Hints:
RibonucZ/Hydroxyglut_hydro; six-stranded mixed beta sheet; metal-binding; 6 helices; zinc; single chain; alpha/beta; globular; hydrolase; Metallo-B-lactamas; Metallo-beta-lactamase, Chain A
Amino acid sequence: MMLNIESFSLGPLQTNAYLIKGEDEGKAIIIDPGMNPAALVRRIKDIEVEAILLTHAHFDHMGGVEELRTAKNCPVYLHPLEADWLTSPKLNGSLNWSQVTGPLSTSPAEYDLAEGQKLKLIGHEFKVFHTPGHSPGSVSFLCGTHLFSGDVLFKMGVGRTDLAGGRERDLYDSIQGTLFRMSDETIVYPGHGPRTQIGYEKMHNPYMA
């Protein structure tokens, strides 16, 4: 069963938002609707959105939540450790980045995410991994060989840990103890930048040497 994955680079921090469809082209989910989501909004005009999944609740990943949730009447999923971040510009960081955005807030998520949870969406199963370090409630989603890693693992890079709730030890534990145990063929779709593969990052990521 194939996934149809489209990527949109949104907002001033060029956050990757992912529009994912299964066999039914009329239904989709969205992972991390970032700021300035006009291109994504246009794309989903005639598509039913089953859910919005958030890898974490930093402002550049949740900036488009309210516009998309209102337009498509779909629920939002987020780890409970960041439940308050959607409503708080201080917690989601938008208060501290006045050079790129005003304060951002949105209604709370409808559903919590948990380690080991399996979400049945668009005819596929998405497994939830709690991967803290970049932020306390960071999660990664695995569907088959497709991994959506948020800001935990990038091509030749890792997430920053100097923001509120970040912890370097947790980040490396998440990568080495969780993500690097996945198949080398697993394709990584990060929160910023190009996609990569687990096997490639094991061999070449300079931060994981």
